[in-house]
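Reply to thread "Modeling small-molecule complexes from scratch"

Following up on the discussion above, here's a worked example others can learn from. I took a protein sequence and the SMILES for zinc ion and predicted the complex. Inputs first:
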Amino acid sequence: MQIEQMNWFQAEEHLKHDDRVIMPLGSTEQHAYLSLCTDFILSSRLAQEAGDRVGVPVYPGLPFGMTSYFREFPGTVSLRPDTYGALITDILDSLYHSGFRRVFLINGHGGNSPVQTYIGNWLNQHEDARVVIHNWWASPAVMSRVRAISTNASHASWMENFPWTRIDGVQMPNEEKPGINPAKLGQLPASAVRAYIGDGNYGGEYQRSDAEMADIWAAGVEETCQLLDSVWMK
Ligand SMILES: [Zn+2]
C-alpha cells in the first residue's frame, strides 16, 4: 500500500492496528549505462512490492543521497552528510509524531550508510521507536544468488541491470570488466575517481539474462517481506 494512494483518515485508521512504515532511500548518481536513478528505482520498486504484500504503507522514495565521489559524472546529485542526516531526522520526527513506531528504511545506495549515526542519535531520544536500514542488495538472500552467478558484481554492473533500470535503446558492452580496487578508490578525489573507473561500472559483466535477474529480484522481495514481519527487536 502506497501513501500516495491513502488519505489521512486512512492513515489514522491504519495506525490503530499497525505502527510499521516503509521508506525507500535512493541516490541519483552515475550508474554507467544504466539509469542515473538506479538506486532510487530499485529501492522504491522493492518497497512497493513488499509493502503491498505485507500491507505496510510505503512512502515515496528519497531520490537523493550522499555520493560526492561521483560528482564529476554529469547528472549526479549529492547531499552533504549533515543535510542528509537532518533530512532523515526530520522525516523520523514526523513519522513518529503520526504514530509510526517501526520504521523500515529500504536503502539502495551504500554511500548512504553513514546516516546510521544520525539514526542512532534519534533513537536515543525516541526509545520506544525502532528503525531498520535494510541494504537490500547486500542482504543474504540476494547476495547468495548474485555470488552463485558471479563474484565479479558491483556498482553499475549486471547486478543492478534489471528491465526497470535500463535505458531504452542503450546497448550494453558485451564484456566483463575487471573489478576495481576499493582501497585505491577510497583514497581519491572525485576527478581521479572518474579517471580510474571509466564508464562507472565497478566490475563485472554489464548484463545477464532476465530470468536470472527475476530470480534475484523475487528473492529480494521475499526476504524483505520476511524481515518486515520478523526483524523487530523488543
Ligand atoms: Zn546502485
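What I'd highlight from this example: Residues 3-230 form a domain with the Rossmann fold fold (CATH 3.40.50.10310). The chain has one domain: 3-230. Questions welcome below.
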